[in-house]
Automatic annotation (TrEMBL):
The keyword DNA-binding applies. SMART domains: HTH_ARSR (SM00418). InterPro entries: ArsR-like_HTH, HTH_ArsR_DNA-bd_dom, HTH_MetalResp_TranReg, WH-like_DNA-bd_sf, WH_DNA-bd_sf. PANTHER family: ARSENICAL RESISTANCE OPERON REPRESSOR, TRANSCRIPTIONAL REGULATOR, ARSR FAMILY. This is ArsR family transcriptional regulator. Keywords: DNA-binding, Transcription, Transcription regulation. Residues 1-92 form the HTH arsR-type domain. Transmembrane segments: none annotated.
């Protein structure tokens, strides 16, 4: 891995909001409409964070209709290190399962 690639990775993953997003993606793929309430930001703000993570090669998005479902890119050379680091972060306050349980699941009908 080149130094610039490592720098891009660390800058993208080192932001608090992006860490929250990555933490949500460790369990399963998640639509942006569900990430929005989980990280407490608007859809455009979450999309900008996802764009940064995608540019760094940390996440991948799969289009389904008009929605994109995001997941960690398991092919990234630092995937194991990232998931190891994320396992040491305190668990998120809410997850997609919590959204489903309270009827707050997003409009993507995943």
């Amino acid at each position: 891995m080149e130094l610039m690639e490592l720098e891009t990775f660390m800058k993208a993953a080192g932001d608090g909001t992006r860490l929250k997003i990555l933490q949500q993606l460790t369990e399963s793929e998640v639509c942006v409409c569900d990430l929005t309430p989980l990280v407490g930001l608007t859809q455009p703000a979450v999309s900008q964070h996802l764009k940064r993570l995608k540019e760094a090669g940390i996440v991948t998005g799969e289009k389904r209709g008009r929605w994109t479902f995001w997941s960690l890119d398991r092919a990234h050379p630092l995937y194991d290190i990232l998931t190891g680091l994320l396992s040491g972060v305190p668990a998120p306050e809410r997850t997609v399962c919590d959204l489903e349980a309270t009827g707050e699941k997003g409009c993507c009908d995943a």
